[in-house]
What we know:
Oligomer: single chain
Number of domains: 2
Strand content: 35-45%
Amino acid sequence: MTNLTNWDSLSNVTNISKSDTFVINDVDDSSAVPTKEITLSIVQKSIFNVEKADAATYTVESGETIVLSEYTTTDTQTITIATSELGSGRVIIIKDGDGNASSNNITVATEGDETIDGAATGSIAADSGSLNLFSDGTNWYSF
Length: 143
């Protein structure tokens, strides 16, 4: 627990972890008596939604950021990004979780006329490889 003597002290705190608790004592300068005491607990939540794709075909749905392919030990796989997922700044990461994409490639397709780096599809052909994509609102680009 970190005890702070006033609100301004909070801006000087560094290296906050998810288990830190802070007690802020807002002191009235004339009496040096705390007028308010607030306890803050930091809660860490994931900002990424991870979905497992374990079938020959899979469609990326709203809110999915990371798609973990768990099908390449079986056969090739096609992962389709729905047109509704286009949005400027939208990021999708597709990862070969089985580590067999060199034998059973993962094809990444779009539902409509959108392109991936100017092509109709993208591909993961390296074992444990990934395809990191972002959208400009019209098409998808790897990074």
